[in-house]
Amino acid sequence: MNTIRKVVLLTGIAFGALSAPAMAQDAAAAPQAPETTSTSDIIVTAQRRAEKVTEVPISITVASAAQLERQQVNTVNDLARIAPSLEIQQAPGQNTGGGGSIRGIGTQTFSPGAVASVGVVVDQVSQGNANISDLFDVARIEVLKGPQGTLFGLTTSAGVINITTNKPDFTRFSARLRTELSDAGTAGSKYGNQVVQGLVNVPLAANAALRVSGVANLRQGVNRNATTGELNDTDRYGLRGRLLWEPTDRLTVNLIGDYSKSRYENGGDFFTFVKTSGPGYFFGGAGEDTTGITDRLESCGVTAKAGNRNYCSDETYVGHTETYGGSLQVDYEADPFTLTSITSVRKSGESGYGAASNVFRADVLELQVHNSPVNRDLSQFTQEFRISSAAGNPIEYTAGMFYSNQKQTRAAEVVDVTLVPFPGLTIPIVTNTTPQLTIRDESLAVFGQLTGHVTDAWRLIGGVRYTTDRLSLDTYDTLGARDGGTHLNAKKWSWRLGTQYDLASDAMAYATVSRGFKGGQIAVPTNEDPYVVLPEVPTSYEAGVKATLFGGWVADASVFYMKIDNFQAQNCTVDSTGVISCDQTNINGVKTRGAEINFFGNVTRNLSLNTGFIYAKATYPKNFIGTDGTNIGGSQLAYSPRYKFTLSGQYDVDLGENFGGFIALDTQWKSRVRYEANSVSDTTFKAHWMVGGRIGVKTADDRYTVAVFVRNAFNVHEPALMQSDFPYTSQSYSGAYEPNIGAIYGPMSYRNVGISLDAKF
After folding, report:
1. 239: number of CA atoms within 13 Å, CB side?
2. Tens digit of pLDDT for each residue in 180-200?
3. Whole-number pLDDT of residue 15
4. What is the pTM of this model?
5. Per-residue confidence (pLDDT) for residue 97, from 0 to 100
6. Mean pLDDT of 143-155
7. How far apart are CA 333 and CA 389, in angstroms?
8. Are 193 and 152 in contact (CB under 8 A)?
C-alpha cells in the first residue's frame, strides 16, 4: 500500500470514529492522569509503593500521560526528550534491553549475552531483553537515576525507566482513538509516519473490568533507495489487554498480556555515507580504486554529505520481529503489610534480513559485505515475591525474592566479503561464520529496603540485595552437536544507605550512597573463541533537594558522583576486509559526576511546564587508549553529551463557551557528542538544538482535539551512530589518508510535519 493510500485510509478511520454517534457516551471520557492525593501531588511508585514524588529520596523525572502525548512520545526511543539525564541509543541491535543510558552510563553492545545498565519496567515487570518498542495508553513514566537494585529486578545498575499503563475502570464503558498523520514531502515533512492508537474499557462487574489498547505505527523513510526512488517502510503493530479484578476488598488481581510485531524493508535505518574518498589505494595498498568512492556513489545518485539518507541497491529484502508476553500480579492486603506475587513470561524473535544484511547498500562499490538472514529467539521467565508495609508507619519496609531465567538461541550467521571489479565478476575475499548459539542467564536475588522515622521530619534509609547469577553460552556445529561452552558465575552484594530530612511541609533534602550490580557478558567475536566480560559494579553518591512550587510545580535538584568498576564497553573498528568488528571489554575507572535540576508539573491552571538541565562529566579513565591509538583518557564517553537541556510545555486558552485552544513547545539542546572511543573529529556531532511543537483546538469537555505538529522543525541531522573507516580508509595517490565515514540516521534526524486527531467516547 503506498503512502497516500495509507494516509487516506487512516485519516478516514479517525474521522469515522469521530462521527460515530452510536459509540458516544453522555459523559466525556477524560484521560487517566497519574494517581494523586490532591491537585498538587504527583504520585509515583519508585519505591514499589504509591508515594508523593517529593517524599522519595531518589532523583526522579516524571512524565504524565498529558506530557507524553503533547511531546508525541510514541516509542521508547522518544523518551530521550523527556529527561535531560536520559539518552536512548537508536542504532539497530545496539541498545541492549532498550533502556539507553542515564547520566552518561549505559550499555551499547552487540553481544548476545549482555543485559542493560538501565532497566525498563512495565507495570512492575522487568522487560529484560524482550522489551517493548511502542508506548501507548500509558499513565506515567518515571526515570529513576542511579543504582536501583535494592528494590528492582534485572539490569538496574545505572537506573530504571518505570512505565505504568492505564488501569481498567470499573465504573463505565469508555473508548478513545488518537492519530498522528504525516506524509513525506507534505508541508516540509522529510518522511511519512502514521500512528493510530485506540483503546476500549469495558466494565465486567462492579469489581472487574477489561481494558484493551492497540497501536499501528507505519513509517515511510527515513532512508531512501536512490535506485528506485522508494523510501524504506517500517511497520509496527502492538496490542495489550489488561484485566483488573478485586474479588474482595483485600485481594487484587492484575492479568496483562501484550503482543507486537514489526516489518522493516531493506534494513530499515542503517548506515549511509556522509564522507567519502576519491581515487586511491585501499587494504594497505593491496587494492586500488581508480574511480573513488565519491564518484562511484555519485554515479548512482548518492551524494555523500552530512544528513545523507540515500543509498543505491537493486536488492530488496525484509526482516521481521515479534515480541509477546503476559504477567499475573496478585496483591493481598494482610494488615499491617501487603503481600505481592508477580509472575511473567516474555518471548521475542527476529527473523529474515536485518540492518546488516547489505552493509554498504551501494551496488557500485568494488567492496561488498553481506550478512546472512538471522533467526534469533529469546524467552524469559521471572517470578517476584514481595512483602511491603503500609506507608506512614514508624518503620516502612519492602523485602522479597526475585528469580529470572532467560534463554536465547541464534542460528549460525555468515558474513561474506567479496570484491566486484566490474559487473559480472565477483571475487570472494573472506567468509566469517558465527556458530549456532544458546545463551542462558539464570539469576536469583533476595532484597530488602527499609525507612526508619527517627523523628517526624528525619528518616534513615537502608537497603541490601544479594544476587547469584549464572551465565552460560554453548556453541554448536553444523550438525547441531555441542562443540564448546563458556560460563560465568557471579555472587554479589549490593546495598543502599541514606538519610532524608523534611525542610518544610513542601520541601525535603536527602543524601544516599549505593552500590549496584550488573551481570557479565560472554562476547562472541567472529571466528574466535567466546570470552568473558566481567560484571559491572558501580558505587554512587547522590544528594538532592525536592520541593513543590506554586502549589503544583515540582523542583528536583541533585548532585551526583559515580565510579564504575569493570565498566562494560564496546569498541567498533573496521578490519582489513571492510567488516565492522566490535570488541566488548571491561574498563576500570570510568566515572560520571555532575549536577541536574528538573521542574515538572503544573505551574498554573493553564500552564504545564517540564524542564531540566544536566551537567554530566562522564569520562574514560586516565591514559585510556582509543581505537585509533590516541590517548583519550579523561575525555567524555562516547554517546554521552556533557550538557543537555530539555523544555516542554503547553499553554491552554479559552475560546468561548464550547472550545479551547493550546500551544505546546518541545525542545532540547545537547553539547557535542562523540560516537567512537577515539579522537576522530569526523565521528562527532556539533552542539545543537532540536525544536518542535503543536498548536490546536479542542472542545471544552476535552472530548475532541485537532492539532498540527512539527518535530525537528529546523531539520537538524543528529545521527544515531557514526563509524569511521567505512568501508575502509583510503590512501590517495599523493599518499594522504582519506577517511570514509558512515552514519545511521533515524526519525529524530529529520523534520516531520503532520496533523493529530483525538476523540474520546
Report:
1. 5
2. 999 999 999 999 999 999 999
3. 41
4. 0.91
5. 65
6. 85
7. 10
8. no
User: 569 pairs with which residues across the strands?
Assistant: 585
Query: Is the bond into 621 cis (omega within 30 degrees of 0)?
Result: no
Pair 648, 665: CB distance under 8 Å: yes
Model confidence pLDDT, tens digit, residues 486-539:
999 999 999 999 999 999 999 999 999 999 999 999 988 877 888 999 999 999
Q: Which residues pair with 493 in a beta bridge?
A: 466
Contacts of 425 (CB under 8 A, 6+ apart): none
The phi, psi pair for 424, rounded to 5°, reads 100, -15
Cβ–Cβ < 8 Å for 526, 577: no
Closest CA relative to residue 158, chosen from 552, 563, 704, 548? 563
Radius of gyration of the chain (CA): 26
In whole angstroms, give the CA distance from residue 491 to residue 502: 37
- Residue 329 contacts residue 124 (beta carbons within 8 Å): yes
What are the phi and psi torsion angles at 98 (to 5°)? 80, -5
How is residue 31 annotated by DSSP? Answer: P
Burial class (CB in 10 A: 0-12, 13-18, 19+), 243: middle
Task: For residues 402 and 446, give the distance between their C-alpha atoms in angstroms, rounded to a whole number.
Answer: 6
What is the C-alpha to C-alpha distance for residues 470 and 489, in angstroms, rounded to an integer?
5
Alpha carbon distance 586, 105 (integer Å)? 14
C-alpha span between 596 and 196 (Å, rounded): 35
Establish whether the linkage from the previous residue to 727 is cis, with ω within 30° of 0.
yes
Contact 594, 636 (CB under 8 A): no
Given a contact cutoff of 8 angstroms between Cβ atoms, the answer to whether 655 and 622 are in contact is no
Contact in structure between 24 and 516 (CB atoms under 8 Å): no
- By C-alpha distance, which of 582, 695, 555 is closest to 96? 582
| C-alpha separations of 204 from 513, 604, 634 in Å | 47, 38, 60
Q: Answer left, alpha or beta for residue 623, where phi above 0 means left and psi between -120 and 50 means alpha.
A: left
- Ramachandran quadrant class, 479 (left: phi over 0; alpha: psi -120 to 50; beta: rest): alpha
Backbone angles phi, psi at 66, to 5 degrees: -65, -40
Q: What value does the mean pLDDT of the chain take?
A: 90
> 644: Cβ–Cβ under 8 A, 6 or more apart, which residues?
84, 85, 87, 613, 614, 616, 668, 669, 670, 671
Give yes or no for a contact between 401 and 413, defined as CB atoms under 8 angstroms apart.
Answer: no
What is the grid cell recorded at 316? 530488496
Tracing cell 522493516 back to the chain, one arrives at 264
Helix/strand/coil for 363:
coil
CA nearest to 57, candidates 181, 171, 148, 125: 148
Phi, psi angle pair for 351, to nearest 5°: -145, 160
Element (DSSP H or E) covering residue 299:
helix 293-299
